């Protein structure tokens, strides 16, 4: 069986000394030595000073809203994992779904204006599949209307443009370190703040709002990353470059082999960006010999579990059939992408025979 992803892991024996240290010190959570070291090593790697580790990205997206006093309508993308909108709704806010740009599949800034209401207080776009949003246009719309911008950057760890890590965009950005991501701590997340004050507030909020042993300034939550997850992250960092390199070879192989297949489109990336090769979405149009779903089933029947990230669209979930969760009437581009997309298996350890098999099954889709 070949799944859409398969987590990379450091050698097991490298974890043993770190576990011994935890057993000796009995410091298992609440910002211990591994947590501090991972924050500082990530800060160095990303070139960003104000980072806060989290137990996962979903809670971090919620804390970001709380820290920025977001309340009311939040303009967001319908084309994402459920967690983007869930984090908005769990915070007591209303997701308002805006169509995506047909090329990047990131929130289309031109859609923001018509969705603004008196209660709009933030924009939460996604850098989809590690492609960066039109950050300047989004910033302009936000500044003009006094809105906060929180990027769901869950797909964009290890993505850099000419100015550095793309996690620097927005008032805050959130990354997932889930098992399925390019860099994983089993479960985990990261919140990037713009200022030291913001980071301080975020760190309080993720620790129940505690300022000191006896003072609680905010209604915080438990968003802390444990020492075990942080230790795994430290080990993973040493293998990150190698993992991204291996991913890039898989990406290159797919691109070479799938180019020219009628009815199969691939996502283009900005040449100037340093990519992380997190996903390999293909888009199956009417010109392909079989439908997207038939191809999905065909691959599955041969043990290849590609995934339809992101189908259905979030506003199509039963949970979002509520009057306060408004959506643009058409969401044309998002709907089309959701109908056409199939994310192919992509992980560092995919072997050449496995890749060859995947490409063959796509090229001969079982007519
Ligand atoms: N925003 C965006 C845009 C996101 O993509 C995500 C997460 C979030 C927010 C929330 O971040 P976190 O709160 O999770 O930090 C998976 C992941 O569970 C989810 O984290 C991820 N996005 C999403 C895109 O993919 P599922 O429901 O597809 O997971 P699952 O269990 O079907 O796993 C997919 C494949 O990965 C499996 O077929 C096998 C493989 N796998 C999975 C796990 C968990 C492994 O080999 N080992 C594993 O431990 O959502």
What attributes does this structure have?
Aspartate Aminotransferase, domain 1, binds ligand T4K, Aspartate Aminotransferase, domain 2, 12 helices, 367 residues, 14% strand, alpha/beta, three-stranded antiparallel beta sheet, single chain, 2 domains, seven-stranded mixed beta sheet
Describe this structure in words.
The protein contains twelve helices and 14 strands. It is α/β, with parallel strands linked by helices. It folds into two domains: 235 residues, Aspartate Aminotransferase, domain 2 (3-Layer(aba) Sandwich), CATH 3.40.640; 124 residues, Aspartate Aminotransferase, domain 1, CATH 3.90.1150. The protein has a seven-stranded mixed β-sheet, sandwiched between helices. Strands 11-12-14 form a three-stranded antiparallel β-sheet. It has a two-stranded parallel sheet with strand order 1-13. Strand 5, helix 6 and strand 6 form a beta-alpha-beta unit. Helix 1 packs antiparallel against helix 8. The two termini are 22 Å apart. The structure holds ligand T4K.
